[in-house]
Each structure stands twice: as structure tokens, then as C-alpha cells.
Amino acid sequence: SQAEYLLAYTELTVGQVAQTVGYSTSSRFAELFRKSTGLLPLEYRKTAQRSKMRVRINSGARLIFKWNYKV
Length: 71
Known about the structure:
By secondary structure, this protein is an all-alpha fold. The chain has helices at 2-9, 14-20, 26-37, 41-58, 61-68. Helix 4 runs antiparallel to helix 5. The radius of gyration is 13 Å and the shape is globular. It starts with a helix and ends with a helix.
């Protein structure tokens, strides 16, 4: 989803992500995000960052650039 992408690949705050995807409050966004993914937005971001770190460690320099690219 767009919210998952923004949490994984940008440094936007949860509030900014919530507004970007159409929620007026970050608490409502977090509630629905958790129902959808099983994780709170910041938990999802930490999980995504760890996943990107594993890819960076296990892959070549070409992927390091790709995974560190920020929108």
C-alpha cells in the first residue's frame, strides 16, 4: 500500500504519512494500519528497515544504492 511504501522508504512522520494517505488523525490511521498489517506504523517501519539492512548485507553494492534511495 502507499502507506507501507511511505513508512519503509521515506522519513515522513507517521502523522505526515497519515495525512498523505487521507487520514485527518494519526491515531485513526495507526489503528486501521494495525488492523491491516498486524503492526503499528513505527513497528512496521522498524521491520522494513531491518529487512532492507539484511538485503544490503547479503547483496552487492548495486542494491545498496537502490535500497537507500529516498523519495
